[in-house]
Amino acid sequence: MMDLHTHLDLYKNAMDILAKVNSINSFTLAVTTSPRAWVITNKVFSGYDNIKVALGLHPEIVVEKFNELDLLISLIPQSDFIGEIGIDGSAGYVKSLPQQEMIFDRTIKECQKAGGRIISIHSRGSVAKVLEILKKYPDSGIPILHWFTGSITDLQAAIDMQCRFSINPLMVYSKKGKDLISRIPKYLIFPESDGPFAILNGKPVMPWEAMDVCTSLSEIWVIPIDEVKSIMHKNLNALLNK
Ligand SMILES: [Zn+2]
What are the angstrom distances between the C-alpha of 131 and each of 22, 145, 155, 182, 227? Predict the structure, then answer.
């Protein structure tokens, strides 16, 4: 089992599920929403070897956390994984777009300086801008576009740049999501939960439920589920061994 994008520190019962996540999932990428949260979470989660904590600054809260930008930049050399970062171009966050873009640009630039990072990226309503900045820093590492909701043209541009995609159980329930997924090469896909924000049947998706997407992938790709799972593990190994 694996989960490439979860807000593990934000579950109500985070401390209770930590050991379970660590034992069921052979790999979990716990993204954070601010660098201060990373410092704390990284300490608390240490000792759980199968859980990696990514350093982030969520685009929806850049106004409130703007004073943590320097801390974010200064911590990048210490963290192999970056996220959640990105740009949110939807109506509610238009006002902070200049700040969001500046922070994303500086972060990606710093990832390149640090020798490349695995980066979990939020790109709602902003795929073109996100890709434009990633293109400026070709050695910034491996971008994983999480919960992709862009157009088919956006998707093709991201595939051309070899972006990875982490997909969650909610995405596979929508027709648009399924259509997008069907166009992504198998070797670029990973499962994610995006819990506790992603809610299915009234309950947050749990990190050990991210792999439930394999059922839908097996239908989309018309291959047995075991084969889907082995592709996910192969993709993970390739990602971590880069
Ligand atoms: Zn998220």
Answer: 33, 10, 10, 21, 31
